[in-house]
Amino acid sequence: MPRQPVRLLTARLSLRQPAQADAEAILGILSHPSVVEHNPSDLVTELEDVEALVRHWLGHWEQHGFGNGCVFEEKTGRLVGNCGVRWMTIRGNRVLNLMYRFHPSTWGQGYATEAAAGLLQWAQESLPAELVVARIRPTNPASQRVATKIGLRRDPAFDDQGEDGVDWAFTCRW
């Protein structure tokens, strides 16, 4: 099992395993239509649905020692997003899917880039042989910029059909 990032720290953020107590704050993020604009099937409007989602995330943590985590501003302690890596299969290949979502009030502050960069570094140190893939809609240039800023590159070999449409792949292989 890889070294578990119990608490991953960046310059302004801390990332940790989610807890059921985080569900209400997560709902405040995932219930924003703008947050899930490119993945509308991920819109969550009921607390019970977020509690189930957190249980799902925790299941990945329990099985693998890592997963989707909660992101907090270090200065305020406010939960501002979720970011993580999880196992998935794309075109028959087992990969680490890197994902990030943040409250709209934080957009433009570099939080997604900072958190994703920290997680990519953790993944490359803890699971160096594994391919990290960020799956991003072609119509989501903001998320594409985050991926390229942290060093991922467009990799059409891993493009795949997502629940809400085609996902472009950005990977760490080059």
UniProtKB/TrEMBL annotation:
Pfam families: Acetyltransf_3 (PF13302). It comes from the Bacteria. PROSITE patterns: GNAT. InterPro entries: Acyl_CoA_acyltransferase (IPR016181), GNAT_dom (IPR000182), N-acetyltransferase (IPR051531). Residues 13-173 form the N-acetyltransferase domain. Gene3D superfamilies: 3.40.630.30. This is GNAT family N-acetyltransferase. It comes from Terrabacter ginsenosidimutans.
